[in-house]
Known about the structure:
Elements: H1 7-19, H2 25-33, E1 54-57, E2 60-62, H3 65-75, E3 82-86, H4 92-100, E4 103-108, H5 111-123, E5 129-133, E6 146-151, H6 160-164, E7 166-177, E8 182-189, E9 195-204
Parallel strand pairs: 3-4, 3-6, 4-5, 6-7
Antiparallel strand pairs: 1-2, 7-8, 8-9
Helix pairs in contact: 1-2, 1-3
Amino acid sequence: MSDYRFSAQRGALIEEIRGRGVTDLELLRLFDLVxxxxxxxxxxxxxxxxxxxxxxxxxxxxxxxSLQARSLQALSPGSGDRVLEIGTGSGFFTALLSRLSxxxxxxxxxxxxxLRARKALDGLEIRNVALLVxxxxxxxxxxxxxxxxxxxxxxxxVPAALVDQLAPGGRLLLPVGTREAQDMLxxxxxxxxxxxxxxxxxxxxxxxxxxxxxxxxEEPGGRR
Length: 224
Ligand code: SAH
């Protein structure tokens, strides 16, 4: 593997993420431990350590690293946690989550992306991740409830199915808004089962969540 080639770029990326307000050392170290380029098509390896979203094929993008770091800061996954991720995409965020939690369950609607993510995860000998191809807007009921739920695609509202699958003490982070612009909402369920909602990260742009609780595939402009 040629990871060493990018170590200087990785250092620069970590500085950039720190500059965006992420100070947790364990989180910052993760971006050194998990080589992002291995999750991306070779054609964009030269940009793999820019703090930018990058194309991964099929009209989808790998999210911006600093936004992922801020998301992890908001979700604070812990060693005993069971995590649900909607939108595996490249699998890079899946890998970060797998290093911070007990088990990760990740759903992706595009089979080819899921297969590619599996290869990259296997290459790094990451064994605590289960991948599913399907509509993640309905969650993954078989393994619910989850301590952490993270959605990497924009939704018109908070999918009820995901809230249902949130454990007491659980945290759900997802971009909610229009197709063009969203805020990242953090929904928490306290130990009494009460739900709380706040804007954790304002002003972001994600690809649309397509599915039962997201946008319909057929009407690119419209809401369901
Ligand atoms: N964290 C990923 C982000 C990928 S982009 C990364 O950094 O690579 C979001 C992904 O969500 C896309 O791959 C898209 O295909 C997927 N997606 C959109 N709607 C979905 C749904 N209903 N269920 C599962 N995946 C979905």
